[in-house]
Amino acid sequence: MAIGMALVTSCAHWPPLGQESTAGVGLEPAPPAPGEQSRQGSGVAAEGAAPAGLDPVATDLGQPTPQWVKQASLVLLLADVEAALESVQQIVQAAGGDLINLQDDRSSTGLAHQITLTLRVPEAQLTSVLAAIRPLGTVQRQSLTVEEVSTQLVDLEARVKNLRQSEQALLNIMERSGEIAQVLEVARELSTVRDSIERLAAQQQNLQRQVAYSQIDLTLQSPVADLPPLRPMDEILGHTWQVATRSVQSVTVAGLKMGLWLLAYSPYLITLVALLYGGYRLGVRRFGTSPPGNGEGA
Fold first, then answer.
1. Contacts 24+ apart (CB under 8 A), 50-57
2. pLDDT tens readout for residues 223-232
3. What does the domain layout of the chain look like in residue ranges?
4. What angle do CA 278, 284, 289 make, to 5 degrees?
5. Contacting residues for 23 by C-beta, under 8 A, at least 6 apart
6. Contacts of 147 (CB under 8 A, 6+ apart)
7. Which stretches does DSSP call E strand in the chain?
């Protein structure tokens, strides 16, 4: 009960979510309407009073600067994929970007060679990097996806700030609590709050990284090679005849080899046949039956 009252008291002094979000991203509150003396001054100077890097209209309205996550996709058709790959790596390194994924698909003869790349470049260099990559080949397909994440960043900043205030309130309660049960309960609540802070802070950092660095999905393809022409008919028939004669020779040689093996083992085969016949005759005499075919002449 004491923990809930302390948290409610602490949350009662928190500013609204929108105000915290604005302060979290480093923006100042909207300035009051200028007086008549300010209106008599230079209009250009009044507009230049906005902080650097912020939209003057958005700043006057108390809104954060728009934040964008940009992702481009580009497919190039070119003859030398390996040379184009080296050129792309040089362009990205010069722009301060990184190659974060590469997949090389080398197909069999007659099919295209394809390399798929995932690039990450500073957002300010996205346009120049794309302009430098396009001339390397023939553009087959290209696209650019832009998503505004200003609201998400503001919301994450406000939630993290509120959770940090809850964390401080719980720490104050732990300093004042003397009973072990209350201390353990506050410790569990504090652990939950800190886990939430870490999770939201990681989401915030990831989103800020996506805003600062744009992603390019690049595919380099070589054209499909021409299939070799069919050989002349006489060449095909000649090759088939050679294969057939070789097959006959192989079968003949195999038959001769088999005959030689049988001839070499013929004494054993004759002995085996004689033993089988002698056993058969002995069985006929023992059971008093005549061999087949001899019944009429007895």
1. 51/27, 54/27
2. 875 555 667 8
3. 67-229, 235-286
4. 160
5. 15, 161
6. 68, 69, 70
7. 68-77, 98-106, 113-122, 138-148, 213-221
For 20, residues 6+ apart whose C-beta sits below 8 A from its C-beta are 14, 157, 158, 161, 162
- Residue 131's pLDDT band, with cuts at 50, 70 and 90, is very high
Query: What is the C-alpha separation between 65 and 29, in angstroms, rounded?
Result: 13
List pLDDT tens digits, range 264-295.
Answer: 888 888 888 888 888 888 888 877 655 555 54
CA–CA separation, 174 vs 168, rounded Å?
A: 10
Instruction: Give the whole-angstrom CA distance, residue 279 versus residue 153.
Output: 99
pTM of the entire predicted model: 0.50
Cβ neighbours around 184 below 10 Å, total: 11
User: Is pLDDT of 144 > 90?
Assistant: yes
Q: How many residues does the chain have?
A: 298
Residue 73, amino acid:
S
Using the structure block, give the residue that is written with the tokens 């940009």.
70
Mean pLDDT over all residues of the chain? Answer: 75
Six token digits for residue 176: 């004042």
CB atoms within 10 A of CB 290: 12
